[in-house]
């Protein structure tokens, strides 16, 4: 009797909180965090970076402002990423970052306690899942749902995930590349490798250090990847000038590099992504694998924008490969779509943790 009364009271309290909050979906990425607010769409896309004052442990900046500080901070300020390889590496800083983003998208809602759907990599441990839930709860969420990133991406691009047919998604983020074969609302097989956008940036930095004795930062490496990076020979190869620091003279230096060189720098990283694609197909049940001959593979995530990566995977798997129309927001769009699902479908797609008031 008491349990029923408490349950009813909790439900009433949740409804009251819901009147003051807008439920949201969050793609909590290693490189970028995106937020979808129900009824509004994608309202925030900022780097998953927090600037901390080391002497006081106070947060000095979050998101875009914090990223601009990377490599430019004095000794008493450090700009860090609280997410590493798709999971939380610093719970306290992640909580501060989530609280900042929630407040930023709901600035006029003082008593804001939204229900939040958060996309996570498949295969993370229970400890890592708990860290995501705890951070969101302490940041003000009244309830937290978790959904695997490739499943969210599949929903976000409109695949029929609840039907009895095979759907394969590759989600290339900043810290991880996630693979999943989905049918009847569940993941039949999933794989996650810690090789993605950040690893590509590091490969470019190492190549320039080794080949030209020049040091560049993460932001410059990312710019090179976006402007001239590729995974497949281009019809017209590209070139660009790069500024960095000469490791021998210690002075600023400008060099010219080509897309051929950057493709060589990315060769091992790209091959790892391709090999994991083939491994996922090898573990797919024959009936679902047959579906993929017609449906092909869908790529999502910012990393899928690397020129020619879809052609490379298609060539090595023998399957058609499609890049989502707007791959960078596919995952967060999927989290947003789940907010509108009937309860029985939402529960089948996600796991939930609710606060006990």
Describe this structure in a few short sentences.
The chain has helices at 2-20, 64-67, 91-105, 126-138, 149-156, 197-212, 218-228, 259-265, 267-282, 286-295, 309-317, 330-338, 343-349, and strands at 24-28, 32-37, 41-47, 50-53, 59-62, 77-80, 83-84, 87-88, 115-120, 143-148, 167-172, 177-183, 186-193, 214-215, 239-246, 252-258, 297-300, 321-323, 351-354. With 357 residues, it is of the alpha+beta class.
Describe the structure.
The protein is of the alpha+beta class. It folds into three domains: 133 residues, ATPase, nucleotide binding domain (Nucleotidyltransferase, domain 5); 85 residues, Nucleotidyltransferase, domain 5; 71 residues, Actin, Chain A, domain 4. A hairpin with a 3-residue loop joins β2 and β3. α3 packs across α4. The longest helix is centred in the N-terminal third of the chain and has 19 residues. It is flat, with a radius of gyration of 22 Å. The two termini are 18 Å apart.
Main sheet specs: 6 strands, mixed
CATH superfamily of the largest domain: ATPase, nucleotide binding domain
Count of alpha/pi helices:
13
Shape: flat
The first-level CATH class name of the largest domain: Alpha Beta
CATH topology of the largest domain: Nucleotidyltransferase, domain 5
Helix fraction by DSSP (H/I, runs of at least 4): 40-55%
What are the segments in which pLDDT stays under 50 over at least 5 consecutive residues?
3-20, 352-357
State the end-to-end CA separation: 18 Å
Report Rg: 22 Å
- Domain count: 3
**Largest sheet, spatial ordering of strands:** 3-2-1-9-10-19
| Average pLDDT | 86
Structural class, please? alpha+beta
The share of residues in extended strands comes to 25-35%
Total DSSP E strands: 19
